[in-house]
Write a structure and sequence with these properties.
2 copies of one chain form a homodimer. By secondary structure, the first copy, chain A, is an alpha+beta fold. Chain A has helices at residues 8-21, 24-35, 40-47, 51-63, 83-97, and strands spanning 38-39, 67-72, 75-80. The two termini of chain A are 25 Å apart. Chain A binds a DNA duplex through helix 4.
DNA sequence: TGTTCATATGAATAGGTGTTCATGTATAAT
DNA sequence: ATTATACATGAACACCTATTCATATGAACA
């Protein structure tokens, strides 16, 4: 166990990321974007939410540097902000998605 | 990239965990508990919150099987619910606490 | 039993937030 | 310029939640 303490800034930043991922709709958006760039309308359809709602969430995810936007004509494609984010989120999701063996 | 899609149940469960960790006070509590069993009053002091507030948060973390309680006399000690949780949370916190090299 | 310490819990409240609706902005095409 | 498509944004609302205060439970000790 390398480090089990965090200073206040790290805690706040980490909590913000967790907070954003703690919303089912937003989590779905992020997961969809991990595979590669997805347009807003495609996200809305795949998630079953209105484009407006998706856009609202995307704004927060953009502001937190979790996702990045890339315009192609009329459409805007979203993907992980960088490789670090992609790796971290991918790992987190894989890890936590694993069922606990000794649950009770 | 092993898997980038999650079903609805997995998404909900994952979102719940993230949601609980997305609160600074709660995140601090969890981080404190990763090193080993900590009493409620010790948590309250180390975090700078009232024992009542800590207890409220602990209830949620207990219910989500993130932390477990162990009574020793008058005190109650909290720690990670199991090794899986400890590993997963430890990894997440270490990972996300790493600064991004190519941020901008 | 009565008292004290440690924790838990219920109610109340203030602030936050997810969603919707309406509207605005940007791009493309006629 | 006008229209259509894709996305963004502001306001409003309903719901949720973090915190506090008061009170209860449970354990040790006199």
């Amino acid at each position: 166990m390398a480090r089990t303490t965090l200073d206040d800034d790290q805690t706040a930043e980490l909590a913000e990321i967790f907070h954003l991922l703690g919303e089912p709709t937003r989590l779905r958006i992020v997961v969809c974007c991990l595979a590669g760039p997805v347009s807003v309308s495609a996200l809305a359809e795949r998630i079953g939410a209105s484009p407006s709602l998706v856009s609202h969430h995307l704004r927060l995810l953009r502001a937190a540097r979790i996702l990045r936007a890339e315009r192609r004509g009329k459409q805007v494609f979203y993907s992980a902000a960088d490789e670090h984010i992609r790796t971290v989120l991918g790992d987190m999701i894989e890890h936590v998605a694993e069922p606990a063996d000794d649950a009770g």
